[in-house]
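Q: Hi! First time doing this. I have a protein sequence and I read that you can turn it into a structure. Is that right? Here it is:
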Amino acid sequence: MTLLNDTVGAEEIAAALELTKEHFLRKSRTLIEMEGMPARLPGNARRPRWSRTAVSRWLDTYGDRKRAAETKSEADEAILANRQALHLAYVRPDRAAFTGPRLAIDNTGARA
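A: Yes, that's right. Below is the predicted 3D structure, encoded as structure tokens:
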């Protein structure tokens, strides 16, 4: 197997994603930063190449990662709702924030 067989170009990735090559290249930075797509390999910027194994793994696990992120988002929303309910149940409306214990200090007997 040669190195050329171990890499994949923008045309092939775009076809797998059902995008045009130009649209994929415009979107590739977002895919890398936000969606976890593997970064391109170093080399000629005019003909970007990616690791075939890494891209295949990314495509194969994309649905599972998206589902996990959505589940986490739903859990975060549930936690926020529970936090708000507890706040309403236990915090007096006249004291929006806990200010801590109030200490009275008597310095009348202190020496200078």
